[in-house]
Amino acid sequence: MLDLDxxxxxxxxxxxxxxxxxxxxxxxxxxxxxxxxxxxxxxxxEEAVRQCPTxxxxxxx
Length: 61
Fold this sequence. Notes:
By secondary structure, this protein is of the alpha+beta class. It has one domain: Alpha-Beta Plaits. Helix content is about 25%, strand content about 15%. The chain has a two-stranded antiparallel sheet with strand order 1-2. The longest helix is centred in the last third of the chain and has 10 residues.
């Protein structure tokens, strides 16, 4: 899950998981490119969760 109210657009998630996250240039916040990343991307998404300085990303399920 990506909390857009908390996201500050640091783009740490984009650096570690560019196939899953990007930055909305107009809003300056992250966007999800894939709502349900596949198993091969799980490690990168977990790292994105750890790297987010505002804790705007969380894993569900």
